[in-house]
Amino acid sequence: MTDTTTSPSPGSVEDHDRPSTPLYYGGREHQGESKLTVVNPAKPSEVVGQAAAASREQALAAVAAAQEAFPAWAALSGTERGEALTAAAAAIMEGSGQEAAILSSENGKVVGESTFDLMGLVQRFELAIGLAEEVDAVETLPGPPTEVRISHQPMGVVTIIVPFNWPIAILGASLPYALMAGNTVVVKPPPSCPLATTRAVQRVAERLPAGVLNVVTGEDAEIGEALVSNQNVAKVCFTGSVGGGKKIMSMAAQTLTNVTLELGGNDGVLILEDAEFTEQNMDLLFMGIFGTTGQVCMNAKRIYVHSSKKDELVAELTQRLEQVKLGPATDSSTTMGPFHQKAQLEFVQALVQEAKDSGAEVREFGELPGGEWAEGHFMRPSLVLDPDPALRVVTEEQFGPTIPILAFEDLEDGIRMVNDTQYGLCNSVWTADEQTAIEVGSRLQAGYVFHNTHGPALLDQRAPFGGIKQSGIGREMGTIGLRNFQEPHALGLLKAEPSSGEADSTPVG
């Protein structure tokens, strides 16, 4: 890959730099049998670039390349793999100005977020590499009669399927942990937004032994089965919608393939009577609602606020929404980009219109872009005040720049309303008292609960991340995330012959 040392204007990709990405597996590039055309969500008539579209046979070849590379990579110690990954990860930020511009152009989000997307992968590599000693750790259960050594072994080939919104950083929640655990990997970037992810993965893969890391782009219908329902794939990691996760799980069931599913969330914010609003935590809440045009799984989707704090909260969010500038990433003054896809725009528009029709107060902010950007997937951000709790804007994951705000009087009612959902990814509790945060937070049904903040900015990436209920299966990151890419292995060493009585009483499993 070429290291671009000069940067174009923010979010732009010059015509002569329009990327065309290949497939990369087995240590070399391959051309697809056709192409995916990638467009700019801020201006759908503008082609950003093209990506190779793999055939089923090419996807199978990528898995075969990973399978061939597995024994030698698995034979390395955790420390040896960590050293190799440290050297390879140094390539992630090469030409970062150009890479962020590509990601913003194909995704739609502002270029600052795209830069952090790349940085997120770097940080998560560092955290995973820091667990080198855990990779080979052995626990011993002493005898007699049997001394049992419990270790954790690599699984094999791992398929990782990432979404469009933060594809590179989200890849970091699984890829470095899978590699550190001794697995080899095939990455499938999102078909609508594959360019920057493919380029980043290839830069890393080129610095690892052939076949250890591979990337294939293509249509789900063409290559999905080859990457998921494949007896040579030991594990599939999928981040995306609940519907997509159910489909992946069904496909993986055909070969009893292990899955980790990080799915949608309808995250609740619970603001108690003693909550203190500061400029910092309100800025974080604002970004935890409206960042990436609301298209983040762990963004806040519902707010339940004690009635005594409601007016102050609305005023704080209004102050920040009044500063929003809608537009394309090419405009350096833009603070909120378009939806990535038109279908999602139309879905969220329908939720907001339904709330208006029901009589809820909807406050909208900002101005829609005109001129050459008039056909972009833009929507004015909004607050939906006191909606009927049965409305879809409350019960469903909007995945867009709108949020319902509902008041409560009794804490038990607030807790009940937060938990009254099929989802369980993240929640947050806002209180000035830490003990109250512990007591209430432990009752909020989610894989991760924030205190006095919400969203990716202050997610502690040393901790395991994932959801309960319809929000997913399994965990990523941290030691638990590492273990999710390993198989426990028990070796029993007979230290003394048991007596006949002991043998007769031993249960049979």
From TrEMBL:
Q: Which UniProt keywords apply?
A: Oxidoreductase
* Residues covered by region (Disordered): 1-35
Q: Which residue intervals define the domain Aldehyde dehydrogenase in the entry?
A: 32-487
Checking Pfam families in the record gives:
Aldedh
- PROSITE patterns this protein is in? ALDEHYDE_DEHYDR_CYS
SUPFAM superfamilies attached to this UniProt entry: ALDH-like
| Cytoplasm in keyword set | no
| Polar residues biased stretches | 1-10
Note whether Oxidoreductase occurs among the keywords: yes
Which protein is depicted? Aldehyde dehydrogenase family protein
